[in-house]
From TrEMBL:
The lineage of its organism: Bacteria, Bacillati, Actinomycetota, Actinomycetes, Kitasatosporales. Residues 60-71 have a biased composition (Basic and acidic residues). This is Uncharacterized protein. Residues 35-45 have a biased composition (Low complexity). Residues 1-77 are annotated as: Disordered.
Length: 141
């Protein structure tokens, strides 16, 4: 069709092969360049700081909030004693307590993982360095 402005196969094609063929999800950034400073999402110091924030802020503040909610719910429960509302409040309080317990466990796990990750990377780096050193000595380098 003459004058058709629809898309064609070669529109925008330069004839130069793509030098970085690969697969990645839409919207996902490509891999970092070798040796790039931002190859890791965080530094050991940032992991340590995040673990400290969990320990000094999130865990104690979550515990305080849970205790405050428990106190308020207990007071309300007493005010509705003998009513169906009291039974409903008890159910809500039990669910809340279980959710807080789960959250506190998750915070504790994340804190431990953050603290362990830095040590893991360090031990891995030292181990690989020792392997390379041993290999270079075997090869007379």
């Amino acid at each position: 069709m003459s004058g058709d402005s629809g898309p064609t196969w070669d529109r925008g094609h330069t004839g130069v092969p793509d030098q970085q063929a690969g697969t990645r999800l839409n919207g996902a950034p490509g891999p970092p360049a070798p040796g790039a400073a931002d190859a890791f999402a965080s530094t050991p110091a940032q992991k340590k700081a995040a673990a400290g924030t969990i320990e000094t802020e999130l865990e104690p503040n979550t515990k305080k909030a849970a205790e405050h909610a428990d106190d308020a719910t207990t007071t309300a429960h007493k005010g509705f004693d003998g009513w169906e509302t009291a039974a409903g409040l008890k159910t809500v309080a039990d669910t809340w307590d279980q959710q807080v317990k789960t959250l506190m466990g998750r915070l504790s796990s994340e804190k431990a993982a953050l603290r362990g990750a830095s040590g893991l990377f360090t031990r891995n780096d030292i181990g690989l360095g020792n392997q390379f050193l041993a290999q270079s000595k075997l090869n007379g380098l």
